[in-house]
Amino acid sequence: MLNEKALLEFVEPYYIEKDIMHNMWHIELIRKMVDKILAISNYNVDKECLTLATYFHGFIYSDERRIKRWLIVQGYDKKMISKTIKIAWESQRSEIPETIEGKILHDAHILEGGKTYLIVKTLITGSVRGQSLIDTLNYMERNVLGKNNCYLPETIPLCEEMNRYTNCFFKDIKEGIQ
Questions:
Q1: Is the pTM of this model over 0.85?
Q2: Cα 122–104–155 angle (5° rounding)?
Q3: Are 54 and 107 contacting, i.e. CB atoms less than 8 angstroms apart?
Q4: What is the CA radius of gyration of the chain?
Q5: In the 8-state DSSP scheme, what is residue 160?
Q6: CA–CA separation, 42 vs 121, rounded Å?
Q7: Does the pLDDT of residue 93 top 80, yes or no?
Q8: What angle do CA 94, 97, 102 make, to 5 degrees?
Q9: What's the mean pLDDT when you consider all of the chain?
Q10: Which residues, including other chains, have CB under 8 Å from residue 31's CB and lie 6 or more apart?
Q11: pLDDT (tens digit per residue) in 18-38
């Protein structure tokens, strides 16, 4: 039932104005990580809801009603809409996911791009927002270090490795610029 062309036409305007670390490329990185998680696991998932939620996660917090209307027009029933919305919300870093699809999408969102990507994303996002390196590192210390958790047994070790790497990088750069 998923009409990928209609989906892309609906979501692309939401991502066109986002910074380079949160645009459609971000969605593709998360999709790739979702596929990797599915490949190393054996979960029975609703792939259509998971795919839809992947695309919606970047603007669920601002346009949930419009997403629901679009899903209705596409012919989705209330149960599928409710599940998709729940998964999209569960992908947010501050949420603790309940559904298996939510855990997969949440963890894919945390792990997108691999262990070095979190650092790159934080530094580029800070730069795009006009922050100095010091401001970005302060943001990283307050909001990134120790804040990333995964919930699946397959992704927890990947997250731990990413967090160790990020902490070492942060420590090294802070020492180097002080």
A1: yes
A2: 70
A3: no
A4: 17
A5: H
A6: 30
A7: no
A8: 110
A9: 93
A10: 51, 54, 108
A11: 888 888 999 999 999 999 999
Residue tagged 């919300």 (tokens): 89
Which are the contacts of 168, defined by CB distance < 8 A and separation ≥ 6? none
Alpha carbons 157 and 150: distance in angstroms, whole number: 9
Q: Which two tokens stand for residue 166?
A: 């990020």
* Cα gap 141→138, rounded to integer Å: 5
Q: Which two tokens stand for residue 42?
A: 């054996």
Average pLDDT over residues 58-87: 96
Measured at the alpha carbon of residue 20, what is the angle toward residues 141 and 114, in degrees to the nearest 5? 60
Rounded CA gap, 48 and 94, in Å?
24
Token pair for 31: 């999709």
Q: Is 157 exposed, middle or buried (0-12, 13-18, 19+ CB in 10 A)?
A: exposed
